[in-house]
Design goal:
The chain is α+β, with helices and mostly antiparallel strands and 340 residues long. It has three domains: 75 residues, Arc Repressor Mutant, subunit A (Orthogonal Bundle); 155 residues, GAF domain (Beta-Lactamase), CATH 3.30.450; 92 residues, 2-Layer Sandwich (Enolase-like, domain 1), CATH 3.30.390. The chain contains 13 helices and ten strands. Strand 5 and strand 6 form a beta hairpin.
Length: 340
């Protein structure tokens, strides 16, 4: 159990280190405003903090730096969040206006990177129940049909259907008209359930075609519904803490390109209440061991549909990054909800 004096020293040391990136010596700490302790007393407290695994001494310096464990305690118990400045808030509000989900995700990712000078990441809205506006079937050749699906978002999806028999153009028009007349505007998962029961009443192979089409459309859209938009990865070249190790930086860019690890990590943030922070190894991604990932879920009409955040070094200004991520998530949700 740390006393108040030890907490104050740890908080001051971490804030100092975040500000200039230099290991903090006991003498430096003793001279700072609000530290009414001698260098010897400061050394004793720092030794205790080091024994608790909250700070460490780099080999090349007599000063101390925070560990991932120290950052965690700092963020959870000692951090003072600052209100976001009006200029940054205005920039977010001006650029996160209603539009297509992809445009909003791209804008949010770019803004997160611009305002924090780190990498901005956005997990695009999860489309577990995609509603469609229109469906059309075109005969390509014998037993090959092109299905054109237009969602309510305006996305156009083309899918190849391999059929059991050859359909005439008039049969394909009939099938498309039936689906559009009875199911347009509904979610594909709900339509799939209705089609399974209702089409049993219809005779012939057209019913089989329509059922297969809806099922394929649902599966394809759901499988491709999530993506991670990454902006500003190159900004990490300017971060001294990361740019010193080029091999690690290359691995980090590999994470951005593959996106698989980011998808899993951001998906974890869906269940969080507000901002969630992964420090170092907490992310579960080895390449991000020297990084912190600050995320927040965003909602459409009260339902969480995606996550966004920032990837940067563990030495980041959390008091500024956290409100940026928090407000961006709220504005993205508002823009998507308004569009709906």
């Amino acid at each position: 159990m740390m006393n108040e004096r030890a907490q104050h020293l740890l908080k001051t040391l971490i804030e100092r280190y975040i500000a200039d990136g230099q290991p903090v010596a006991s003498k430096t700490l003793s001279l700072l405003p609000g530290i009414e302790l001698s260098p010897a007393s400061v050394r004793n407290v720092l030794a205790d903090l080091e024994g608790m695994g909250l700070i460490a001494s780099p080999h090349t310096s007599a000063g101390r730096v925070p560990t991932a464990r120290g950052y965690r305690l700092f963020v959870d118990r000692l951090l003072t969040i600052r209100p976001l400045d009006e200029l940054s808030r205005h920039e977010l509000e001006a650029n996160l206006q209603p539009g297509s989900p992809q445009r909003i995700a791209q804008a949010a990712s770019s803004l997160l990177s611009e305002l924090t000078s780190f990498a901005g990441v956005v997990l695009t809205p999860q489309r577990s129940d995609v509603a469609f506006r229109q469906i059309e079937f075109l005969r390509l050749s014998e037993r090959r049909v092109l299905m054109i699906l237009v969602t309510l978002d305006g996305d156009v999806q083309n899918h190849l259907l391999l059929t059991e028999r050859d359909y005439t153009p008039s049969e394909l028009v009939e099938a498309g008209n039936f689906i559009n007349q009875h199911y347009a505007g509904q979610g594909l998962s709900a339509v799939a359930l209705r089609v399974e029961s209702e089409l049993r009443q219809l005779q012939g192979d057209i019913a089989e075609l329509m059922a297969a089409a809806v099922k394929l459309g649902q599966q394809t859209l759901e499988q491709g519904s999530e993506d991670v938009v990454v902006s500003g990865g190159s900004r990490l070249f300017q971060v001294h803490d990361l740019s010193d190790d080029l091999s690690r930086l290359r691995e980090l860019f590999g994470v951005f390109e593959r996106k698989t690890e980011l998808l899993k990590l951001l998906a974890q943030g869906r269940g969080a209440q507000g901002v969630n922070i992964f420090i170092g190894e907490e992310s579960g991604v080895v390449t991000l061991d020297e990084c912190s990932v600050v995320t927040a879920p965003y909602c459409i009409n009260g339902q969480v549909v995606g996550t966004l955040g920032v990837v940067g070094p563990t030495r980041m200004a959390y008091e500024r990054v956290i409100p940026i991520v928090d407000i961006t998530a709220r504005l993205v949700g508002n823009a998507l909800s308004f569009r709906d």
